Amino acid sequence: MRIGYGWDSHEFKSGIPLKIGGVTIAHPKGLAGHSDGDVLLHALTDALLGAIAAGDIGAYFPPSDARWKGVDSAVFVQTALEQVRRAGYAVANVDSTLILQEPRIGPHAALIQRRVAELLNIDASAVGVKAKTPEGMGTDNAAIAHVIVLLTKQAGKPRRRTRVLEEVPQPVVDAVAESLLESLEPQKRGKE
Ligand SMILES: [Zn+2]
Fold first, then answer.
1. What is the mean pLDDT of the chain?
2. 188 domain-assigned
3. How many domains does the chain have?
4. pLDDT tier for residue 150 given thresholds of 50, 70 and 90
5. Which end of the chain is less enclosed by CB atoms within 10 A, N or C?
6. In this structure, which residues have their CB less than 5 angstroms from ion ligand 1?
7. 17 is a domain residue
């Protein structure tokens, strides 16, 4: 069994779409940053990579790389999930907490839960989505996400040694990411 933890934050900016947990939420402000700014999926990606000690999101998808500008963050989650599978693990459950002043997450929580479960190919009942407001933190113009994951050894599969990031050749990472980008083509990469 392995445990993984991820944290992320993004600043709100007017006039861009707000995406949290792969769900587009109607709001006057979105989250600025590299890719689509999906704070929950970024924290989830780091939690998955952290659980197998395989580096972090920035190492796989550097903000300096123009390919990831505006991209659907589902690509990051799926790339991390592929690393988890190669290491011989499967996701048992995920828990998350969002900290943001607005919008209220409650009305969207069930949709976020289903979307995250779908991305991880697990049951929605194995995905916790909670939200709080940042009382006394002074972070009203930011969204923060904490995510924790539990991985279990996959039965009946050859157990490969967990490889550290430096041992994963960059062409492999690129090939996985490219194929995922192609599979997401109907969602118009860079637009969401
Ligand atoms: Zn991020």
1. 89
2. no
3. 1
4. very high
5. N
6. 8, 42
7. yes
Ligand 1 centroid to Cα of residue 57, in Å, is 9
Residue 33: inside a domain: yes
Residue 106 CA to ligand 1 centre (angstroms): 21
Give the pLDDT confidence of 30-70 residue by residue, as tens digits. 999 889 999 999 999 999 999 999 999 999 998 888 888 88
> Can you say whether the dihedral through the CA atoms of 73, 74, 76, 77 is positive or negative?
positive
18 band by pLDDT with thresholds 50, 70 and 90 = very high
* Start-end of H helices in 26-155: 39-51, 57-60, 74-86, 109-120
Which domain range does residue 126 map to?
2-177
Give the global pTM: 0.82
Residues sharing a CB contact under 8 Å with residue 23, sequence separation 6 or more, in sequence order: 108, 111, 112, 115
